[in-house]
From TrEMBL:
This is Peroxiredoxin. Belongs to the peroxiredoxin family. AhpC/Prx1 subfamily. GO terms for molecular function: thioredoxin peroxidase activity. It comes from Mesobacillus boroniphilus. PANTHER family: THIOREDOXIN PEROXIDASE, THIOREDOXIN-DEPENDENT PEROXIDE REDUCTASE, MITOCHONDRIAL.
Amino acid sequence: MKALGAELLAISTDSVYSHKVFKETSPSLKNVTYPMVSDRTQVISRAYRILDETTGACFRASVFIDPEGIIRAKLVYPGNVGRNLPEHVRLLQAFEYAKQTGKGVPANWVPGQQGVSTDPSNIGNI
């Protein structure tokens, strides 16, 4: 993600102690280098509107925040469905493409494809 200019944080309502044990015992987390943040107070989860008030835990979500602190995208997944990391990468690439070109990014866009004009006079003509 760093290559795409992004910083990754893992945030959950679990304690720092749970994070430590999980990282030490889970084969998939042994080599994780990004920060794991404990949101025991649920302040972050509530602010991003990803707190399951029934369980007190976060929904499985990915929140994309730009350097100005604006949420650009938020993906919320059911608990039994994993994230789609290639889509996360495509989103980051699309944000950068739109920033560099000033063009909109159409549905199913992938790097190398053209964007679309965001000129309001083109509405209904594209």
